[in-house]
């Protein structure tokens, strides 16, 4: 799942078609001209670690007054430099069919313009312009394979400027770590369990927190109609299960990860795709891993500080792993992202 830095909403974004899974959109583009201070960066890092950390604790860790911290968090959110929301396995919140799609465009077309057109599709939660085998990558989250197939056959293949596509349906979303600093030192897994199923109340809690990750539990209890203590217990269980995280989403470049790429792996005959996925997920910089059908077996998103950092990851770590027969790297440029919310039953 993918990324925000100094976020700049484009004028055309107001016309985006909304659906339950795609209610909010941001252009996650670096270099918009916004300035953030050293204390802002540290604040973002703390909110990446825990989006619900109290203002009192934030103030203590930053050496600032609580009033100052409250004001700055509000300003960062208003400027869309951060969005405090939920990150969850799509299958856990009702989306059984997810795919990454690599798109090559017609010569002379503008990559970002086409990416924005693709992003108007309800099921596209992530799009990025790229350099490498593809011009654009998009992630689709759908209720089922029929919805995915209809979208691919109709809107995407028929879109002006799209020359050809490669489809990578997810067999498993193997690993996700949206707190970018935690991708550097792995202290335990963020591997999703495909067996987690959320009931109606759980989904309503996730829906509230996806709209505002810092929404008070009392407000959630009033919205859903159960006690605050039950909300707290359910939220703690969701965290413990790894079904959901609440944190500040931000462009990795805002906190120093300026080289972002997708690494596409083919697993050697006789090797276990899951075992290779486990090895890759343990490496520093790896933030997202999908085990896929299609041309590649594994698609991994990596967050690196600079091109040298990426080269070292590829040359000294990934290419030396057993069980990998080929590696392709796709560099990322401009991001479009929006949160997904649970399907309404």
Automatic annotation (TrEMBL):
GO biological process, one term: response to amino acid
InterPro entries on file: ArsR-like_HTH, AsnC-type_HTH_dom, Dimeric_a/b-barrel, Tscrpt_reg_AsnC-like, Tscrpt_reg_AsnC/Lrp_C, WH-like_DNA-bd_sf, WH_DNA-bd_sf
Membrane-spanning intervals of the chain: none
Keywords: DNA-binding, Plasmid, Transcription, Transcription regulation
Single GO MF annotation: sequence-specific DNA binding
GO cellular component entries: cytosol
Domain of life per record: Bacteria
Domain HTH asnC-type: 36-96, 198-258
Record-given protein name: HTH-type transcriptional regulator
């Amino acid at each position: 799942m993918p990324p925000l830095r100094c976020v700049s909403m484009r004028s055309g974004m107001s016309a985006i078609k909304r659906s339950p899974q795609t209610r909010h959109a941001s252009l996650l583009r670096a270099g918009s001209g916004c300035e953030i201070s050293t204390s802002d960066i540290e604040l973002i890092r703390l909110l990446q670690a825990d989006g619900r950390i109290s203002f009192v604790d934030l103030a203590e860790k930053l050496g600032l007054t609580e009033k100052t911290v409250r004001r700055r968090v509000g300003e960062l959110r208003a400027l869309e430099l951060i969005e405090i929301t939920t990150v969850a396995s799509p299958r856990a919140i009702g989306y059984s069919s997810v795919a990454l799609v690599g798109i090559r465009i017609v010569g002379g077309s503008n990559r970002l313009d086409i990416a924005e057109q693709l992003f108007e599709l309800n099921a596209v939660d992530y799009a990025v312009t790229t350099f490498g085998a593809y011009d654009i990558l998009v992630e689709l989250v759908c209720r089922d394979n029929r919805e995915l197939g209809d979208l691919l056959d109709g809107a995407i293949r028929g879109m002006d400027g799209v020359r050809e596509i490669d489809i990578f349906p997810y067999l498993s979303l193997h690993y996700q770590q949206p707190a970018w600093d935690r991708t550097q030192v792995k202290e335990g897994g963020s591997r999703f369990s495909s067996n987690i199923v959320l009931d109606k109340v759980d989904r309503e809690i996730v829906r509230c927190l996806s709209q505002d990750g810092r929404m008070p539990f009392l407000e959630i209890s009033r919205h859903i109609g159960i006690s605050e203590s039950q909300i707290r217990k359910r939220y703690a269980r969701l965290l413990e299960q790894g079904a959901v995280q609440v944190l500040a989403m931000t462009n990795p470049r805002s906190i120093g990860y300026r080289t972002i790429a997708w690494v596409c792996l083919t697993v050697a005959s006789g090797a276990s795709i899951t075992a290779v996925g486990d090895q890759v997920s343990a490496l520093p910089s790896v933030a997202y891993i999908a085990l896929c059908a299609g041309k590649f077996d594994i698609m991994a998103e990596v967050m690196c500080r600079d091109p040298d950092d990426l080269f070292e990851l590829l040359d000294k770590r990934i290419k030396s792993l057993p069980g990998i027969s080929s590696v392709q790297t796709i560099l990322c440029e401009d991001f479009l992202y929006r949160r997904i919310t649970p399907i309404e039953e």
